[in-house]
Write a structure and sequence with these properties.
The chain has about 90 residues and is an alpha/beta fold. The protein has one domain: Thiamin diphosphate (ThDP)-binding fold, Pyr/PP domains (Rossmann fold). About 30% of the residues lie in helices and about 20% in strands. A three-stranded parallel beta sheet has the order 1-3-2. It is elongated, with a radius of gyration of 16 Å. The termini are far apart.
């Protein structure tokens, strides 16, 4: 099946890190070493694209979605950056 996976890879458990940060705890147990998911996809017979620079993203996504094979786009993101907090309307 030509399933496509977009992976935002920060080598962290970001939501846990965020909770620790917002509650005033030191970061603990959130960092780990990921494999190169693009290479893993290729070793399984699929397509793999590793994106380390923003200017390479469009090409990688386009190639992944035009392929007739399963594909992973492994996007390396800043492990220290937080997305802004979204508040629910009450």
């Amino acid at each position: 099946m030509p399933i496509k996976v977009i992976l935002f890879n920060d080598s962290k458990l970001k939501n846990i890190k965020k909770e620790q940060f917002f509650y005033g705890y030191p970061e603990y147990g959130t960092t780990f070493i990921n494999p190169n998911f693009a290479e893993y996809a290729k070793s399984c017979g699929g397509e793999g694209y590793r994106v380390e620079r923003p200017e390479d993203l469009d090409k990688a996504v386009e190639e992944a979605f035009t392929s007739d094979k399963p594909a992973i786009v492994d996007i390396i993101v800043d492990p220290e950056a937080f997305a802004s907090i979204i508040k629910k309307a009450t």
